[in-house]
Amino acid sequence: MSTDTQLQFVETPHPARTPPDQIATSIVNPVFGRVFTDHMVTIKWTDRLGWHDARVEPRRPFQIDPACSVLHYAQEIFEGMKAYRSVGGEILLFRPLENARRFRASAARMSMAELPEALFLQAVEALVRTDRNWVPGGDGSLYLRPFMFASESFLGVRASSEYVFCVIACPVGPYFKAGKTAVNVWVSDQYTRAAPGGTGAAKCGGNYAASLIAQTEASAKGCDQVVFLDAAEHRWIEELGGMNVFFVMDDGSLLTPPLSGTILPGITRASIIELSKRDGIAVSEVPYVFDAWRTDAGSGRVKEAFACGTAAVVTAIGQVRHAGGEFTIGHGDEGEVTRHIRTLLTGIQRGKIADPFGWAHRVK
């Protein structure tokens, strides 16, 4: 069984690469998650061989058996990360080893094969190097989607003995509608995202599947995102459908729900906490009840609120709608603290400002 943390990748160039002029057109304001690069990376795992058969090859559909276990038992995990083109032309990844560590933790929770961090990074870099012409400049980025699924064909409730790891990529612009400085959110009092002892801290597809009905409800209410409350009491704020949440208090401090096992440990979330503490901004990771949010927004104790994640980056929350009515955060637009944090974070990600933490990883 292979225990290597580095593998030799077999590279098969695409026989009909997208022409440079077509790439240039494709990476100008692309719709999020709709335009994909020419190649993908795959690595296989079996209980007999371990990690093997590492390839960089043309992007193509998978051929799977109808009894493929992912279709029946949902053993699947993924990551979201981005590659940026700096003003000097370098390609940067933002804290990729944190994605690798979270991917491994998700695999452990889902009883899947654990991909070594070094091999995760090797795979991501291999795809970025091969499709480097797809990395936009300016405010765009190349969204990277590493994922893994159970590939053994069988029926029976047990962990698979075979897995496929893959990385695909797509050039992206803003996650929310371009030019929108604040989003509206719907607080779900009927559906929950995760429960204690469940998979809330793992980045698995099942969590997102369970959230879609609430997101559909939010859209019907004219909102961009859904806010989930805790499963036990339906009182405590946890996170949004695909991102973490912060509150800016009137004393300038930040408040965010704690990682209790039901919330995804966001890398953007962790970075904001570190950046804020460096700048002398107090950050409290404490439970926050929805009724308090509504009251504090009305009194001005909560000045701003924002969502954060790889896709959304840092996005202000302007209006909150719920079964009992609605309320506005501050002036309903992006506030000063939210803007400051977003500017700092994106500046480091794109190599525009000094990186005191060494978070920007250069792809050689």
Protein described:
The chain is of the alpha+beta class. It folds into 2 domains: 10-172, D-amino Acid Aminotransferase, Chain A, domain 1; 182-349, D-amino Acid Aminotransferase, subunit A, domain 2 (D-amino Acid Aminotransferase, Chain A, domain 2, Alpha-Beta Barrel), CATH 3.20.10. Helices cover 25% and strands 29% of the residues. It has 8 helices and 18 strands. The protein has helices at 20-26, 69-73, 96-109, 117-130, 205-220, 267-278, 290-299, 336-349, and strands at residues 10-11, 39-46, 50-58, 76-78, 81-85, 91-94, 141-150, 162-172, 182-188, 225-229, 237-240, 244-249, 254-256, 283-285, 302-309, 313-322, 325-328, 360-362. The strands form 2 sheets. Strands 1, 2, 3, 4, 5, 6, 7, 8 and 18 form a 9-stranded mixed beta sheet that branches. Helix 3 crosses helix 4 (117-130). The longest helix is centred in the middle third of the chain and has 16 residues, at 205-220. It starts with 9 loop residues before the first strand and ends with a strand. The relative contact order is 0.14. The model has no long low-confidence stretch (mean pLDDT 95).
Main beta sheet strand tally, sense and closure: 9 strands, mixed
Helix content, binned percent: 25-40%
The share of residues in extended strands comes to 25-35%
- Counting DSSP E segments of at least 2 residues, the number of strands comes to 18
How many separate domains make up the residues?
2
**CATH fold naming of the largest domain:** D-amino Acid Aminotransferase, Chain A, domain 2
The CATH architecture classification of the largest domain is: Alpha-Beta Barrel
Straight-line N-to-C gap: 30 Å
The global form is globular
Q: Return the string of H and E elements.
A: EHEEHEEEHHEEEHEEEEHEHEEEHE
What is the number of helices? 8
In the CATH hierarchy, what is the class of the largest domain? Alpha Beta
Superfamily (CATH H level) name of the largest domain:
D-amino Acid Aminotransferase, subunit A, domain 2
Q: Rg from C-alpha positions?
A: 21 Å
Low-confidence stretches: none
Task: Kindly report the average pLDDT value.
Answer: 95
- Secondary-structure-based class equals alpha+beta
